[in-house]
């Protein structure tokens, strides 16, 4: 029983790391109706910017502020150069645009900051702690706490401020939002900035675990099953989806893996997502209609 | 209405085509300040397209719009909202996942002065503005007898109530011109009468200029001061309700050949 609990808790905590990545997708999907393939590159770019600055001896807080400013500028640039000219185009056009964007962002990052692996030390002890007999990774626990804080902050922003009212309005009905004087271009810039910030947090946590390097942009692939299971339009869904994927991977590896010769983690989440596509195509919390009209 | 004041809105020689199909041909008319102007005509006559041009969703192929003395070849939706052109949609375009109060508060967007950073950080000016907006929203909800629904999620309300919420959202920002696309559609007789009374009150008390599209000819002829009849994108008639009722062309094209009797 202890082993089961330990596996489950470890999986759930690891899952919050997936949730963090998935939330960035959900924000952008809700506000601008596009599956942002470049989310992984943005995450990498954000983490790389921060690490490059701190490597140069810039104090952490200053580096953080500069990174945030850079992300906001990037968001404004994306809105001006990609979203605005392509407004009212089909979802596929927008998706292809973000595909191109992904490589531009990655290439820019490489050109500016080099391609070697950068170590990132967030100062979190990675010693396990014990809860009774159950061993828990301190790093995972911290990551989960950060994810929780981020989600609370986002829900306050969305539910308690008028900015949040405008954001939800644009997500709900774009033409109605325009007709009452909500500046949707501005809203897009803000949402992409926030998605960049979420990417920064996710990038720093993932980077602290596996080094800040170009393969970091591949964590987006981990977010896909999370989004399919949780739904593309719900932050709650992204969290639950991440937890489901984390727990399933961890439990699957321990209890199913041995029968299949081990090493099922790389594909198990996708198999699970496939099963969800059959049963609940919109995900656990997604809206049934995916089409935006 | 023989006011000497310049029109609130003038549509001048507007034409609109979709891929070669003419939706509106060389249409011109004027809307006097503080009047209710009704656009009537069969489906496909170009009524909704015209409203979409007036608030900037469609770009006309030619012609111009003169709103409060300023000339526009096209409106931008945001520009229209900021100049005070409010809009109600044919199918409710409310933010259905949000509460009634939040919908109405969103309607005040054009009056927002606090910057978004102030908003995000909940700085004093943003908080004061939020409070002011909330009060104003509740005032307007009171006007529509909707206070008890303030915190209800819109999607859970009956259609007729949603329609009132949409009207509340459209007028909360004190528009200079209100465009309504079939505000009475999909309602029973009692609900229609209620909304029609509200529209008349808004027009009278708030001195709102209103352009509306409506199919219920009986209500239109009682409610409107001025009726413009469209057919296949052309203006068939333009005048006071009494003249429209007796216009043989209108009767032939729209009212189905027989003269309709409208109870006074």
What keywords describe this structure?
heterodimer; A: 293 residues; mainly alpha; two-stranded antiparallel ribbon; 11 helices; 2 strands; 72% helix; 3% strand; globular; B: 264 residues; alpha/beta; Rossmann fold; 2 domains; 6-stranded mixed sheet
Précis, in short:
The complex is a heterodimer of chains A (293) and B (264). Chain A is mainly alpha-helical and 293 residues long.
| CATH class value of the largest domain in chain B | Alpha Beta
How does the helix and strand content of chain B classify structurally?
Answer: alpha/beta
Rg of chain B is 19 Å
Specify which chain pair forms the largest interface. A-B, 23 and 35 residues
Task: Tell me the number of helical segments of chain B per DSSP (H or I, 4 or more residues long).
Answer: 10
How large is the count of helical segments of chain A? 11
InterPro entries (chain A): ABC_transp_permease, BCAA_transport_permease
Keywords (chain A): Amino-acid transport, Cell membrane, Membrane, Transmembrane, Transmembrane helix, Transport
Subcellular location (chain A): Cell membrane
Protein name (chain A): Branched-chain amino acid ABC transporter permease
Topology:
The complex is a heterodimer of chains A (293) and B (264).
Chain A: H1 2-32, H2 39-55, H3 60-83, H4 91-113, E1 128-131, E2 134-137, H5 138-160, H6 162-172, H7 174-179, H8 184-210, H9 219-230, H10 235-256, H11 265-279
Antiparallel strand pairs in A: 1-2
Chain B: E1 9-18, E2 21-31, E3 36-40, H1 47-54, E4 62-67, E5 70-72, H2 77-82, E6 85-88, H3 100-106, H4 116-120, H5 124-143, H6 159-171, E7 177-181, H7 189-205, E8 209-213, H8 217-223, E9 226-231, E10 234-239, H9 241-246, H10 248-253
Parallel strand pairs in B: 3-8, 3-9, 6-7, 7-8
Antiparallel strand pairs in B: 1-2, 1-4, 4-5, 9-10
Helix pairs in contact in B: 3-6, 5-6
């Amino acid at each position: 029983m202890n082993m089961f609990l330990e596996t489950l808790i470890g999986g759930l905590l690891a899952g919050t790391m997936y949730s963090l990545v998935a939330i960035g997708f959900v924000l952008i999907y809700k506000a601008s109706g596009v599956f942002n393939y470049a989310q992984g590159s943005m995450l990498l770019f954000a983490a790389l910017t921060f690490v490059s600055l701190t490597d140069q001896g810039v104090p952490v807080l200053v580096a953080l502020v500069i990174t945030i400013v850079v992300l906001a500028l990037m968001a404004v640039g994306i809105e001006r150069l990609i979203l605005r000219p392509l407004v009212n185009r089909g979802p596929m056009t927008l998706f292809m645009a973000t595909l191109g964007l992904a490589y531009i962002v990655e290439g820019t990052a490489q050109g500016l900051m080099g391609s070697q692996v950068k170590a990132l030390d967030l100062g979190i002890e990675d010693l396990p702690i014990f809860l009774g007999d159950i061993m828990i990774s301190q790093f995972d626990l911290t990551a989960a706490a950060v994810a929780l804080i981020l989600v609370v902050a986002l829900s306050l922003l969305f539910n308690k401020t008028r900015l949040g009212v405008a954001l939800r309005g644009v997500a709900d009905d774009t033409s109605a939002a325009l007709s009452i004087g909500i500046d949707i271009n501005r809203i897009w810039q803000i949402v992409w900035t926030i998605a960049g910030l979420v990417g920064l947090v996710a990038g720093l946590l993932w980077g602290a675990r596996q080094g800040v390097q170009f393969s970091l942009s591949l964590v987006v692939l981990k977010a896909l099953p999370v989004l399919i299971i949780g739904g593309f339009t719900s932050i709650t869904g992204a969290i639950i989806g991440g937890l489901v994927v984390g727990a399933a991977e961890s439990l699957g590896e321990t209890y199913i893996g041995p029968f299949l010769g081990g090493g099922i983690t790389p594909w198990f989440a996708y198999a699970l997502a496939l099963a969800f596509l059959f049963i609940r195509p919109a995900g656990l919390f997604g809206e049934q209609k995916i089409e935006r009209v | 209405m023989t006011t000497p004041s310049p029109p609130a809105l003038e549509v001048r020689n507007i034409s609109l085509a979709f891929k070669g199909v003419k939706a509106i041909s060389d249409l011109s008319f004027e809307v006097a300040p503080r009047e209710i102007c009704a656009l009537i005509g069969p489906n496909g006559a170009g009524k909704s397209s015209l409203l979409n041009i007036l608030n900037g969703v469609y770009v006309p192929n030619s012609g111009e719009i003169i709103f409060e003395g300023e000339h526009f070849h096209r409106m931008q939706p945001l520009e229209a909202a900021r100049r005070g052109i409010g809009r109600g949609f044919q199918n409710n375009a409310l933010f259905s996942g949000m509460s009634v109060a939040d919908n109405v508060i969103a309607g005040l967007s054009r009056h927002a002065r606090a910057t978004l950073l102030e908003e995000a950080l909940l700085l004093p000016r943003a908080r004061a503005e939020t409070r002011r907006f909330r009060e104003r929203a509740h005032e307007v909800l009171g006007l529509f007898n909707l206070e008890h629904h303030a915190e209800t999620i819109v999607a859970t309300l009956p259609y007729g109530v949603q329609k009132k919420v949409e009207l509340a959202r459209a007028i909360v920002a004190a528009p200079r011109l209100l465009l309504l696309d079939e505000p009475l559609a999909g309602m029973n007789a009692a609900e229609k009468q209620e909304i029609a009374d509200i529209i008349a009150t808004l027009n009278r008390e708030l001195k709102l200029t209103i352009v509306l599209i409506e199919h219920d000819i009986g209500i239109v002829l009682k409610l409107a001061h001025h009726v413009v009849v469209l057919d296949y994108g052309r203006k068939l008639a333009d005048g006071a309700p009494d003249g429209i009722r007796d216009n043989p062309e209108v009767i032939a094209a729209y009212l189905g050949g027989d003269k309709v009797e409208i109870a006074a």
